């Protein structure tokens, strides 16, 4: 889990089928020592883990990515310059027992990542 170490939840609002969360990234986390020294960038795998953790927390159950139909990394996140990130995770139950998920990581007018896929 990255929550509590790599990032902390600053604010969260939940409504039916959606969770809106503002997180604060920990620019001093060891991940940034290797990704990349003197120019930290949030790895894509960490962005996906954040989505997974927020979805699982909202559903109060562990979830696992089954299929990513869209995963677009639009702008890099420098945790020093952009420590706060808004994460919107919308989900809907499918007849297959999976969750259809749409998520974005953004802040104000900057969109960092867009995702669509299935979790179980």
From TrEMBL:
GO terms for molecular function: lyase activity. Residues 12-93 form the ApeI dehydratase-like domain. It comes from the Bacteria. This is 3-hydroxyacyl-[acyl-carrier-protein] dehydratase.
């Amino acid at each position: 889990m990255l929550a509590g170490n790599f990032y902390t939840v600053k604010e969260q609002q939940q409504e039916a089928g959606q969770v809106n969360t503002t997180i604060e990234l920990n620019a001093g986390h060891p991940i940034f020592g290797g990704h990349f020294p003197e120019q930290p960038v949030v790895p894509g795998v960490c962005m996906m883990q954040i989505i997974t953790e927020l979805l699982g927390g909202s559903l109060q159950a562990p979830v696992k990515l089954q299929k990513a139909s869209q995963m677009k990394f639009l702008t890099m996140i420098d945790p020093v310059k952009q420590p706060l990130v808004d994460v919107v995770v919308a989900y809907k139950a499918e007849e297959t027992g999976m969750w259809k998920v749409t998520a974005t990581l953004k802040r104000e007018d900057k969109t960092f990542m867009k995702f669509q896929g299935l979790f179980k």
